[in-house]
Amino acid sequence: MQRMAVREIRVVPDPVLRTKCDEILKVDARVESLVRDLIDTVDDEGRAGLAANQIGVSLRAFSWHIDGEIGYILNPQIVELSDETQDGEEGCLSVPDLWYPTVRAQYARVSGIDLAGDVVSVEGEGLMARCLQHECDHLDGKLYLDRLTKAERVKAMRELRQRL
Q1: What is the pLDDT of residues 101-110, one digit of tens each?
Q2: Burial annotation 104-141 (CB, 10 A radius, 16+ → b, else e)
Q3: Which CATH number fits the domain that encloses residue 30?
Q4: Total domain count for the chain?
């Protein structure tokens, strides 16, 4: 794929971040361009994952950059989560400079399609599992802040309001 563009990241309170993304019904030039932009935009230091709505496109697609691996998936759905959990600091490009402890499954597996329309599965533990869950949340119009404990959420929202 040729290099396309590093796109601007949408930040709260942009309404696109709270909108459930549409399923991709046809892989066409527009979707191929979106995937190139997602890959180019996630390929930056400190970026682990990027959902399409974070660059203003309300379609079910995301990219990741974990442990040197860059990839993407279209129409992802979480199909498996472990009972074992992890509780670590989580942040978000769309909620800059806010990190809060967020409970996630230790293992996650998502299923979707690639640009050829073939069914693919992506799985991982630790950071990859956190990324898969975080990006699927984005595609459903949710932010990691929604998963915080009540006390942490109040604190995070106060901090966020002070920055806006």
Answers
A1: 999 999 999 9
A2: bbbbbbbbbbeeeeeebebebeebbbbbbbbbbbbbeb
A3: 3.90.45.10
A4: 1
